[in-house]
Amino acid sequence: MAQGSGSARAVLALVLLCVLLHGELAESKVYTVGDRGGWTLSSGGWSRGKRFRAGDVLLFKYGRGAHNVVAVNAAGYRSCSAPRGSRTYSSGNDRVTLSRGTNYFICSIPGHCGAGMKMAINAA
């Protein structure tokens, strides 16, 4: 084997890895939750019929102070409560990247989640 062929293989492997990672990122989509209406009390069924993938981004648009977005676990979703350590977004223009599996979101403003302002998104 020629001297330096091992490092040439390493460089080739690194380039291939970069191309593959770039391809994954290029395929991700940005979805505006609730479309034009934004994240509201009536946007709970917005995700029906859509196909999401890990790496896709959900854009939650809402009036700052009127709502929030809390990423919760399944128990928090069912009980409409934010477990300790849950990530809360409150800018009114929040971008959340989906993880593989089911991603759960609620609005923790009193009464909002119970009125249907929550969603479970499954990302393949």
Automatic annotation (TrEMBL):
Residue ranges of domain Phytocyanin in the record: 29-124
PROSITE patterns: COPPER_BLUE, PHYTOCYANIN
Assigned keywords, A-Z: Copper, Disulfide bond, Metal-binding, Signal
Span of the signal peptide: 1-26
One of the record's GO cellular component terms: plasma membrane
InterPro entries xrefs: BlueCu_1_BS (IPR028871), Cupredoxin (IPR008972), Phytocyanin-like (IPR039391), Phytocyanin_dom (IPR003245), Plantacyanin (IPR041844)
CDD domains: Plantacyanin (cd11013)
GO molecular function, one term: metal ion binding
Protein's recorded name: Plantacyanin
